[in-house]
Design brief:
23 helices, disordered N terminus
């Protein structure tokens, strides 16, 4: 735990009271907009189970699960997640080696292409995959059943997770050990299994569990690419809610979904701790210390990785751009112009561009909410009571751990479950927020907050806390000391966090699909509705909207990263005061 400057007991207790007030406020916000909706959802689900089991025993419970198709949906969820995880691992580990352990011209570009998809909205990626493999697409001649397209889209997203997680560890390894094994007569496979694999195994396991967690909650991919025949737990929750108005059955499915995601999250956390212990064994080596120039024997692997990136990542993005610029077999910008024309889409009497405005408004508001909440929580997690009240340190540490766990809970509940829980709570505790503009932004913000906390906390922990004592000795007050000591590091982290928050919220589809009204959808929801139609005009507008959505998310991330890098340079030069 980092320490602040020495202070008087009165100042220590004042600090503690302020910390407690901030903690109570943050916990209250999370309770109102997350814990209460989830509680209402669980109450509805367990209430239905209790009534059925009381009337008919355990046979009634089995009947409920059969009636809702829970077992089939669970099996489909697990199989698709396993398929996506397997593909990401099989291709991601070789990509990690080439991109993080070998130096060659174009390496930076390939690494960018691998990482870039992670910030794209799921609906946009689904539309790109559909454009590529649909009739008329460049790869439309390849038979691709819905399940295969879903798993390919999972690879699109999660290749970067495996490559970055494993590559970060692999790049730290001392290559001399592998060279020594080769001089003793070991072949490439034996060198990998005996020297390299034991040292990267923790990172691979960590990446696998994270990817499985992501794949098991790939709601947008299944909704767009799966059609009516691919039914997972999340899509069944949506269908039971929107098509059959059966909230009780949807609640039962949500409970099952919570169990699946929670188990995956716990396994992921355990795997990450193991990976961290493995990384600590390489302490003292700088990142990239194990990078060596590309060798001739690496050329086939480089070619394969480049081809994979081209087919799985580059082609879908190029295809959706081309499809957005085609109408009636000709090159045209009609699809984009139709976004501005009321009635261009059948049955929609307002311009699709209005959903872009709604998405921007909601995303900006959600980004602001997420940044404020995540920054407040990060400050709470990195504070330390002044040394005069160090007898309270242990209790503060326990409270900080509790706050940390509390705000990680949204990771253990899928966005679909959160959105459905808020929908259920709108008839009760959240009735007051139903007609306000806060409903969708708050849901979107809660999806982003856990990620933002993990961006901001490390930045604050890199602060040289001894400077607080120097600032206090020079007469600086708390705000002045904070602005001089912590604010420069925090400001850079906030730039990156803002980019991630906007990228996440502008494309959020899972929770939003439960909460938007028929005449007040966001752009991702509108893209999904247009893709579900057969008309060429509607499809073309969906692809045009997809291009705009990708551009907005990419621009936000690019601006945030550029700003953060400029501030880093300025800090190093001493020009940022």
């Amino acid at each position: 735990m980092n320490g602040l400057s020495r202070g008087t007991p009165r100042h220590g207790y004042r600090f503690l009271l302020g910390w407690l007030a901030g903690a109570i406020l943050a916990a209250a916000i999370l309770t109102i907009f997350f814990l209460i909706p989830v509680f209402e959802l669980l109450k509805l689900g367990f209430g239905e189970l209790t009534v059925r089991v009381t009337d008919g025993g355990l046979a009634a419970l089995s009947q409920i699960l059969d009636d809702t198709g829970a077992w089939s949906a669970l099996l489909t969820t697990l199989l698709l997640a396993a398929g996506g995880t397997a593909l990401a691992t099989v291709f991601g580990v070789p990509a990690a080696y080439i991109l993080y352990c070998r130096e060659f011209p174009g390496r930076v570009l390939l690494r960018f292409l691998v990482v870039f998809p992670f910030v794209l909205p799921t609906v946009a990626v689904s539309a790109a995959m559909r454009a590529l493999f649909d009739e008329g697409g460049w790869l439309g001649w390849i038979p691709m059943p819905p399940a295969a397209m879903i798993v390919t889209a999972m690879l699109f997203f999660n290749l970067s997770v495996v490559a970055r997680t494993v590559g970060a560890t692999w790049g730290l390894l001392n290559p001399d050990y592998a060279a020594l094994a080769r001089t003793l007569g070991a072949g490439p496979l034996r060198v990998f299994m005996t020297v390299t694999w034991p040292r990267i195994r923790g990172a691979v396991l960590s990446a696998v569990t994270v990817v499985f967690l992501y794949c098991s909650t790939a709601y947008g991919l299944v909704m767009v690419l799966g059609g009516t025949h691919t039914r997972t737990l999340e899509t069944e929750i949506y269908r039971q809610t929107s098509e059959y108005l059966n909230l009780a059955s949807a609640a039962v499915l949500s409970i099952l979904q919570i169990v699946v995601v929670t188990v995956a999250l716990l396994i992921s956390r355990a795997a990450q701790r193991q990976a961290q212990r493995g990384a600590n064994s390489e302490t003292g080596r700088r990142a990239g210390a194990g990078v060596r120039p590309l060798q001739h024997r690496d050329l086939p692997l480089l070619t394969g990785v480049s081809a994979l990136i081209t087919v799985v990542i580059v082609l879908p993005l190029l295809q959706v751009v081309v499809r957005s610029l085609r109408r009636g077999g000709r090159w045209s910008v009609t699809n984009y112009l139709d976004l501005l024309r009321p009635g261009a889409a059948r049955g929609i009497d307002y311009p699709i561009a209005a959903t872009i405005t709604e998405s921007l408004r909601s995303a900006l508001l959600a980004t602001g909410i997420a940044l404020v909440l995540a920054t407040g929580v990060a400050l709470l997690l990195t504070r330390h009571i002044p040394s005069a009240t160090r007898n309270l340190d242990r209790h503060l540490g326990t409270l900080q751990t509790s706050i940390d766990v509390l705000f990680m809970l949204p990771l253990g509940v899928s966005a679909v479950t959160l959105g459905f829980g808020m929908l259920v709570a709108l008839g009760g505790p959240l009735r007051w927020v139903a007609d306000t503009p806060l409903l969708v932004p708050v849901a979107q913000a809660l999806v982003a907050v856990p990620i933002l906390i993990r961006i901001i906390v490390p930045a604050l922990n890199r602060t040289d806390w001894r400077l607080y004592g120097v600032a206090a000795s020079l007469g600086a007050g708390p705000l002045r000391a904070f602005s001089a000591v912590e604010w420069p590091m925090l400001r850079r982290a906030l730039g990156t966090a803002a980019g991630f928050a906007f990228g996440i919220t502008i494309g959020e589809f899972s929770a939003t699909s439960f909460l938007v009204l028929q005449h007040d959808p966001t752009l991702p929801v509108m893209i999904y509705r247009l893709l579900a139609r057969a008309g060429a005009a509607d499809q073309g507008m969906a692809y045009a909207g997809t291009v705009l959505l990708c551009a907005l998310a990419a621009a936000a991330m690019g601006l945030a990263e550029t700003t953060a890098e400029n501030r880093r340079v300025n800090i190093q030069k001493g020009t940022l005061k």
